[in-house]
Amino acid sequence: MTVVDPQQRAYVASQAADARVNVELETGGMTLNMGPQHPATHGTLRIVVRLDGEQVVEAEPIAGYMHRGYEKLCEVRTYPQVTTLVNRIDWLGSFANEVPFILAAERLMEVEAPPRAQWIRTILFEMSRIANISLFLGDMGAQLGAITPVFFAFRDRERALNLIESATGGRFHPNFDRIGGIKDDLPAGWVEDCKDVMGRMRDFCDQIETLLMGNEIFASRCRGVGVIPADVALSYGLSGANLRASGVDWDLRRDVPCGLVFDQLDWKVWTHPDGDSFARYWVRLQEVRESTKMIDQLLDGLPAGPIMAKVPRIIKVPAGEAYVETENPLGAMGYYVVSKGDLVPFRVKIRTPSFNNISIVPWVMKGVYVPDVITILASLYFILGDIDR
Amino acid sequence: MSRLSSADSRATSEEIPATEAADTEEAIEVDEAREDLLADLRAELGDALVDTHIDPGREVWARVSLESWVAAGTFARDGLACHFFDFLSAIDWMPSPFGRDMNSQEDLIVDGAPDSAAQAPGGAAADEQATGYAGGDTRFQLLARVHAPSRGLGLILKADLGDDPDLLRAATWVPVYAGAAWHEREAWEMFGIDFEGHPNLIHLYLPGEFEGHPLRKDFPLLSRRVKPWPGIVDVEPMPGEDEATVDTSEADANEDATEAAAE
Amino acid sequence: MLLHAVQLAYWQETTIKVVVILGMIPAGALILGYVFLMKMMSFMQSRLGPMEAGPYGTLQLVADGLKFLQKEDIFPEKADRWVFALAPLVVLISTFLLFVVLPVGPDLIVEDLDTGIFFALAVSSISVIGVLMAGWSSANKYALLGGLRAAGQLIAYELPLLLAVVGVVIQAGTLSMQGIVVAQAEGSIFGFDAIGSPYIITQFFGFLIFLAAVQAELTQPPFDMPVAESEIVGGYQVEYTGFRFLLFFMGEFGTAFAFAGIASVLFLGGWWVPGFEPTDNILNWLGPIAMFGKVMFVAFLIFWVRFTYPRFREDQLQAFAWKVLIPLSLLNILATAVLKVAF
Known about the structure:
CATH topology of the largest domain in chain B: Beta Polymerase, domain 2
Number of helices of chain C: 14
Oligomer: heterotrimer
């Protein structure tokens, strides 16, 4: 799996504990410290890299600079309070963080949200995917040196964020989901606005496709870089677009029905056989496009009705355990909720996708060049809040 | 140690008793795929499979003996096609000796008088260490989940670790699932479980000199020790309710209480 | 003009020329920086750019310069002080020397060397030493990586730069910069001589190769591995702050200005405007204006590519130079030589 030599392992571990940039040049190789402040790591991730010239001998990611102790915090918060807290795990697609937790609580309470609430939840779920991944589409170009597509990505992403804000009140942390339904109904005119924005989003995807994916330099930087075969991906627990780019046809939206209405839509799961960085970019681009089409279908079929089921004002979730995992923008996110019939959960285990996605870094970075380290990190796409919780 | 009351109404073996009142078809639904999975697991592990539980159509739990932890994982991967590694963690079943650190009006209303047993920190509630689905005999329990993409099923594995917090030991799952490496590091630093054979059991999140294991129940959440939760301070109307019907008496009472305390 | 009216001593003339060039480097950097870096890049990225400092943000770079000047002068603890301090000056010296052979009018040139273009290419290589000095003396691994990458890249791309120019020299028959302008002015394309013979038409591939090599010499994207911002955070410039960083910045844009000027002289006809004789005195007034326009055009191309493309990886960069640009430029020379003899 990783380096077998125990001495090398101990050496890197000791280096990892030392925060100083190592200035001494060893003849056996140079240790380069990328982060925690570094433009390429999306947040405070630190990667200690041992180089031989420009080739990586070993790479060890060190997470935890942003550890907030979510699982401990959840044990002293009521279920609605946990919903607020949990927005901040993956802060780019934050509505998606609330959904699996709410679904787990609803499963324990044996409450089902009314159809309209489920559809709106699904719309916002896909909208958070668009908000999250469209940033990735521009940002990966920026990591590779193309500074212009980022601005196009942010410009079009603003429209999605404005929509989320007009519906939920918050651009980044909507805190909109409630056990039994959602907080408020959609404002008037939202459906038309949303359709318009989805059309523009598709234009943006086409733009980015020609601008970045069609660029020869981008292709030569990404093709064949960071190939992850399917069995390795599965054993590391890689999920989301990373897994589908390695050829595994698995999407939780289609395969594990949980309470969102994906089974009533006509959509496609995108996979790519290569498993390299280009494949991961390609899959995410197609997924954003697919999301816009799904949202269009959802808007067309939005049923009327109440948005909240009958739940008591003070929510006491009956005893039991539930695990709900959904296909979040970053991958498969799940909450294992243990309840003892209380106002607060007894134990919440939060399974975050970026945690597993980054644990593969030591395996995949062996023998790549320093620029490829950036390419691979960018293509694996993690959010620090997701790794560190 | 008592079981959770709801666990009694669900069978801990395969069949759900027909005596349970069935309003819908789901109550007497038998989950064939998951039954078969458990049957295969039982055939492989025999007595090592201590207990099971099925939530029909949703999830299956299996509690195995600690000695067979790696064997169960290996069989899950090879025999049950569970190639996807989801997560590995642990549960500390002891009720928190600090109570819930919530002194809001809500809690008093819900749990009755302030001296009720459920609220007394370290009181009678501490004896009652209920465990969840598929049972559990000890305070610490390993929890892992793996998934079979080809079958569309997941398997949650549990194993009892023991009661003594200083003697928690388990075999490592790293040879079975490579992704377990980081999860086991986190379980070690959060619960104090020593994974034998792990290549690199060092801190993942916490700084190097950190003492203690935060996710254990007897490790206090310092922010609540320092400043207890003040209770409801703002009342938001329920979705569908309008402002006029909202009852703000509790919030006002809390506000007065904090002001009085500040003076 | 002034040159014919007043007879100046040699030292007075030289002083004026030196002062003018010393002024041109920051002025050129300012103009290029504002027009292309601040405004053109912003418009391409659908934003406005700086608008606050001065009307439409024209004084933004001046404000930036003043900001840099008042910053603390920091030396890294383990840095080699003298080498660290001298490195940006070496790069600037190279820029300064480039302007020596850049003509802006029939008489407006610091020194019309017979080996004009050869001299220019030679002195542009001095900047490599400055970059290496910066990378090594910073006592920082990122700087070292950047410095080594830069050395490799700059040396590799010297060759296509040179070879692209050889085609022009063959056609013009002279190495002198003024001579090349005059050759374009007096040349003709298949007998049609209204616009002379700007070598961009006959040496089109040479022009493209020259531009690519210039892009690499300036360490601009797509060849900006040495200063890859998102990877090694500034490369060899990472430990430079304040005034020293300003020197590097001015060096980069000043060199861009100089190379754009050289490209206009070599390929676009320099200070010559169609309709005038190369010896007309009026060109001492019109020439600088025409040169400025042509410099802006070439700089537009350079910066446009800069904002659009991602960056090459180091090995791809080297492969591009050695396996693509050099063979193409050799073919160009061959074709030029054959056609020159044939016609």
